[in-house]
Design a protein that fits this description.
Layout lengths: L1 H25 L5 H25 L1 H13 L1
Helix pairs in contact: 1-2, 1-3, 2-3
Length: 71
């Protein structure tokens, strides 16, 4: 069960970071902070991807992240 809940948490975090990055792209001009904000969101997605890799393996992890980002 712990693995399933960790999986769900990571996928949820990936979705949240991706949504935040998309928001920042379309947000009114927020200056140079916009670039830093988006960069940080993508870095966090990378961190969650690494954690997901430990749970499901590299091929499945990249497929899941790709699918989430395509939504």
């Amino acid at each position: 069960m712990k693995g399933q809940s960790e999986f769900a948490r990571l996928v949820s975090q990936i979705d949240a970071e991706h949504q935040a990055a998309k928001w920042a792209i379309t947000a009114p001009n927020i200056g140079t902070a916009q670039h830093r904000f988006i960069t940080r969101r993508l870095q966090k997605i990378g961190e969650y991807h690494q954690q997901l890799t430990q749970l499901v393996g590299p091929e499945t992890a990249i497929r899941i992240v790709s699918e989430r980002m395509d939504k």
